[in-house]
Amino acid sequence: MAIEIPREKLTVRFVRSGGPGGQNVNKVATKAEVRFSLEEADWIPQQVRRRLAEQRPHVLTRAGELVITSDRFRSQSQNLEDCLARLRSWLAAAARPPKPRVATKPTRGSQHRKLEAKRRRGDLKRDRGWRSEE
Fold it and tell me: Helix-strand-coil percent breakdown of the chain, rounded to 5?
């Protein structure tokens, strides 16, 4: 399910990039910043918006805006395309419903290995302690 991204609903800004780059980095605003309100994004289905917010909480502002930035390239158009490609991949990932978990019991071998490891660890810790000369 491909979600069409309407450019008129996005706020696009170009700012100066940080980091190395010589004198050019101080003059040219090539870093792309794309933002939009996730609650008001009626072009994204409700459950996809909810999953996107759960999967990517670090790109959401307190006001509920989703912010995507890119400064990988030295041109505005490439950085803008990078932001949009990233948004497309995030939407595709959020559009896939999570696989339901199938509850399983631990095998007898895994239970035995766990208990054996606990016993060895306990023996190691017991041997560290002080003992009187017998």
Answer: 45, 15, 40
The H or E element spanning position 55 is: helix 46-55
Strand partners for 66: 36, 60
Burial of 10 (0-12, 13-18, 19+ CB in 10 A): middle
Sign of the C-alpha dihedral, residues 107, 112, 117, 121?
positive
Paired strand residues for 33:
13, 69
Q: Tokens 């490609």 appear where?
A: 85
Place of tokens 């759960």: 54
User: 7-95 — its CATH code?
Assistant: 3.30.160.20
Which parts of the chain register pLDDT below 50?
A: none
From its phi and psi, is residue 110 left (phi > 0), alpha (psi between -120 and 50) or beta? alpha
pTM for the whole thing?
0.71
Instruction: Write down the domain spans for the chain.
Output: 7-95
Task: Point out which residues pair with 31 in neighbouring strands.
Answer: 15
